Every structure is written in C-alpha cells, then in structure tokens.
Amino acid sequence: MSVFLRLLALMRPQAGWMALAVLLAALSALAHVALMATAGWFVTAMALAGVAGATMNYFTPSAMIRAFAIVRIAGRYAERVIGHEATLRFVAGLRPWLFARLERSAPANLETLRDGDLLARLRADIDRLEQAFLRVVAPLVAALLVAVPALLWIAAYDGRIAALAAALLGLAGLALPLALQRRSAAAARRLASGTAALNAHLVEEVEGLAELAIYDPDGIHRQRTLAASDALVADENLLARAAALDGAGMLLAAHGQLIAALLLGLSAVAAGTLAPADLPMLALLGLALFDAVGAVPAALRAVPAVLAAATRVFALADRPPAIRDPADPAPLPATTGLVLDKVSFAYPGAPHDTLGGITLTLPPGRRVAVVGPSGSGKSTLALLAMRFVPPRAGGLSLGGVAYERLTGEAVRERIALVGQHDHLFGASIRDNLLVGDPLADEARLREACRIAQILPLIEALPDGLDTFVGAHGAKLSGGEVRRLLVARALVARRPILILDEPTEGLDVATEARLLDALLDEVLPGNVLRGDAKPGGTKPGGSLPGDVRPGDALLGGAQPSGAQPGGTLSGGANPGGSQPGGTLDGDARPEGSGARALLLLTHRPARLARMDEIVRLEAGRVVARREPHGPRSRRAEPAGPTP
C-alpha cells in the first residue's frame, strides 16, 4: 500500500487533469446507463400507449435520449484526451525525476546493474506506470461514481432488484477479480522482473555477439535468453486465462442480472408495486451498469504489475548517492589547483585498499604522468578527482577548498572526464559533441576534432558532423570513439581535463599525433590520462636522459631517499617539487590560467614533456622522478594495507 500511496503522491502535480478525466469518465458512463434506461422505458411506454390507444409526450424522452447519446460520445472523447494528457504529463515528469535521482547515484551505485536491467527500468517499468492512472485509478474511481447512484436509483423503484444487482456486481466485479488476482499476482510480478531480465539478456546477446560467437559456441547464453522468453510467455498465458475468466464472469453476471431482474420485476408488476414501463428500464439499467463498470476486473488485474514496476523504479530511485553534497556548500574557488592528500580508497567488500596514501598536487600548468599496470588504481584516481566516490581516508581539494565543502556539480564544472566506458548517444557526431557544451559553434567543434585527430575522418564523411554514429558509437571503430570522446571533452573547455585511455585502439602514429596535439593545443590545461596499452615508443617520444622503460617507470632500481607509501622526503627536488610530491610553484604558477596535465598510463612512452613521473603499483606510489631534471628519488613500496 505504501508503494501505491507513494505513486499517487507523484501524480499530485497532475491532480487537476486526472480529476477532470475521472469526472468525464464517470459522466460518459452515467450517460450510457441513462441512455439505456431511458430507451427501455420509452420503447415500453410507447408500446403500452399504443395498445391502450392513449397519447403521451414523446418529445421529452426522445430529446433526453439524444442528449444522453451526445454526452456519452463527447464525454468519452474528452475523457480520452484529458486522461492521456494527464498520463503523458505524469510520465514526462516521472522520467526526469528518476533520471535526476540516478544522476546523483552514478556511476558508483549503479555498477551492479546490468545495462538491460537499467534500460528496462527506465523504459518498460516507466511505461507500465502509465497504467497506474489510465488502467487502475481512473476505472476504479469512475466505477464507484457510477455504481452508487445507479444502484440507489434502482433501489428507489425496487429494493430486491437493487440488492440482486449489487450482489452480482460485487461477485463478478470484485470477488472473482480479486480471487483471480491472488492467483495471477505472482505471474504479474514475474512478468515485470522477467521483462527486465529478458532485456538484459538481449542487450548482452546483441552487444556481445562477436565474443559469444567465439567463447560460447554451444549457445549457452542464447539458451538462457530463450528460457527467459519462455518463462515470460508462460506468465502471459496465465494472465490471459485470468482475463478470460474475468470477462466470462462479468458477462454471466450481467445477463443473469437481466433475467433475474425481469423475473423479480414481473412479480412486482403483478402486485402493482412497479409500473410496467419501469420494468425494462430497471433491467436495462442494470445491464448497462455492468457494461459501465466492466473495466474494474482489468484494473484489479493490473495492480500487481503496476506495483511491481513501481517497486523496481522506487528501488532504483532510492539508491543512496555515493557522496552527499554539503548542506551549505562553499562557493566555487577562483583557482583550479587539484590536491590529493594521502588519499586511500577501497571498494565495498574489497579485502584491501585500491589506493593507499596517494599524494598528488596539480597546480595549473603542472604536467604529471602516473604510470602503472592495469588494476593499479589509475581509473579509481580519476573517479576520486571527479568526486564520484569518496575517499576512505585522506582528502582532496580544488583551489584550496576541500571537496567536502563543494558539491559534486561544482567540482565537475571545473573537471571534464573521458572515462574508459563513457557513452556515445545514438545521435549525430554534432549532437554528441554538443553534450560538452550545447552553445559551442561550428568552429569550436571542428577545432576540438582537429586536436583529437578525428577531423579528417569527419570531413571525409558525406554528412560530416551530422553523421549518425549509432548506439554506443557502433558505426565507429574503437579508436574513433575514443577520439570523439576526447573531442567532446575539449569542447567543454573545463579548466581540468581527465582522460582515461584516450589512445585505446589507435596506431602508434595516430597516438603520437594525438598526444602531441593535446600537449601543444590543450595546454594550458589540466589533463588526467589513463592508458592501458602495451609499450612501444616512437622516435621523438622516448624518455630523456636515463628514464627508460623497465627502470624507474617499471619499478627498476632507483636511488633511495623516499619515505614509505610513495611520498618523497628530504632534499630539493628538481622542478620545484616539495617533499611528498607537492609543488612549491614552477613555471606555471597557481592562478595563471595555465592548465596541468596528468597522464595515467602503464605505457612509459612519450613522457619526455612531463614535469613529473609517478610510478603506481597495487594502489601505492613506489617511485617519483622528473624527466627534465637529474635522477630523482625512489619511493619504497608501501607495506600491507592497515
């Protein structure tokens, strides 16, 4: 009941439209009942008057019949229009409401959901909630508004006929549907969850077709999909049988009432307590009443499915945000220096920290590469910087203001992220780029594409920027998708740009051009980049001096002088860094408007233009060095996670 009441609360903004739709539905149903009753009385009265040779006023009843017919037709049309308007307004408000709640939980609290399940909740479950008003609330309330006055009208003529009609109406309209609902409620709930499961299977089947062809030659996944489909068909058959029994029960009750009303009415006519012309009026009124409330069984059958869909939607909406914004947030800082101070992080249920004691300082203009193998925590570092997840220990700050005092929206106004699993919408290249900034002009879009090394490809397409990319960028290669995502981030023009795996799927030459263009054109600017490609360098991209793959970057022997946990200690560090890896200001001072570059990569190539290189292993900083200066100190590997 609480779920249904909560659903009704969401309908409150459209209460006026919905009340008007219910009143129109009741009015058209009452007009239908009155039309049948008046027609029955009029035909009988005319026949009796003809037999008796008497005269009667037939203008008034004939005018009433025409009026009731017009009201019935106009009322049904208006009820459909107003009812659907109310429903569409309700759904139009429901989807943004749900999306806003999902946004605060994403991405951390949505990782356990399969894509197909999430799609089903956003589409199928929301669509099923359309039935909450049109198929449940409106028919039940309208039936009550029609049945009460109709039964009172019958009772004014003959209480026995009214009691009989009420009993049969309760039996066929309430008792039988409720009994069948109890039997089919589980099937209705399974249908809601099973639809989501089937959608998830189908999404995986389509998106993973190539992988399944290789790793699932026996078609096990397809068999599971077919089994889910068969289960849905069985549940739908059960619900169809319940609907058939409901319809049969209502039909038998309606015609049983008609026959019983005639038999009871004949005795009343014989006793002189009922006028002969009133008998067919009461009989047809009862028959029309069953027709008017005939939607009640379907409404009761729809309740379990609607409640199941609402429960799933509310469960999704009620997922707590990974980070709660402060009640009194601090204003957005004027500067954009990003600081991570001894940050540790662990995923729920993980036995060890993913990151432990990470300290990084990124004032505007600083260019730092964090090098580490896949799984070392580089992407988690980006999530922390975006304030998608909270640190377990330590803290982050932006422009000198602690993250705890800033909203996530404020942080992300200064930082743009290109993650490994970022989404391309099933739209044109232009539309996907405009996600970065809807106000960007053509020149800005093309400049971003030029820097991202994808402009020649776009110009070669017949439709250019208006080319449709398909769902998830299906019409583009993996490398093209990565470059388009980089271009979208450049369009946003955030002071800090986070790139995670921007060169995935690129050949060495294109990768070199992209990184050089980012360094040449993006700077000044802050960039975090996470890359998981195997090694290999290009002439001009080797490490300067004695910085070599397999040495400091790969955990080789280093000069001593670092504290455990990866923070540097003692001595003057080249390039102006302070102990612990913090900076005392270099050629790009804080507030200068310059940006910093942070590369998160396990490929120790093309790092010659970095100001600092940090080696990350198992979530710990194990070495720091500066390629432009003399050989730097080594951070000893940290001990076990406390």
Describe the overall structure:
The chain has 642 residues and is an alpha/beta fold. It has 17 helices and eleven strands. Helix 2 packs parallel to helix 5 and helix 5 packs antiparallel against helix 6. It is elongated, with a radius of gyration of 36 Å.
Q: What is the alpha-carbon Rg in Å?
A: 36 Å
DSSP summary: helix tally:
17
The backbone outline, from C-alpha atoms, is: elongated
How far apart are the termini?
A: 47 Å
CATH topology assignment of the largest domain = ABC transporter transmembrane region fold
Task: Please outline what is shown here.
It contains 17 helices and eleven strands.
List keywords for this structure.
642 residues; alpha/beta; ABC transporter transmembrane region fold; Rossmann fold; 7-stranded mixed beta sheet; 4-stranded antiparallel beta sheet; 17 helices; 54% helix; disordered C terminus
Topology:
Elements: H1 2-10, H2 15-52, H3 59-105, H4 115-129, H5 131-157, H6 159-207, H7 209-215, H8 220-271, H9 278-292, H10 296-317, E1 338-345, E2 355-362, E3 367-371, H11 378-385, E4 393-398, E5 401-402, H12 408-414, E6 415-418, H13 429-434, H14 442-451, H15 455-460, H16 478-492, E7 496-500, H17 508-522, E8 526-531, E9 597-601, E10 612-617, E11 620-625
Parallel strand pairs: 3-9, 3-10, 6-7, 7-8, 8-9
Antiparallel strand pairs: 1-2, 1-4, 4-5, 10-11
Helix pairs in contact: 2-3, 2-5, 2-9, 3-4, 4-6, 4-10, 5-6, 5-9, 5-10, 6-8, 6-9, 6-10, 8-9, 14-16
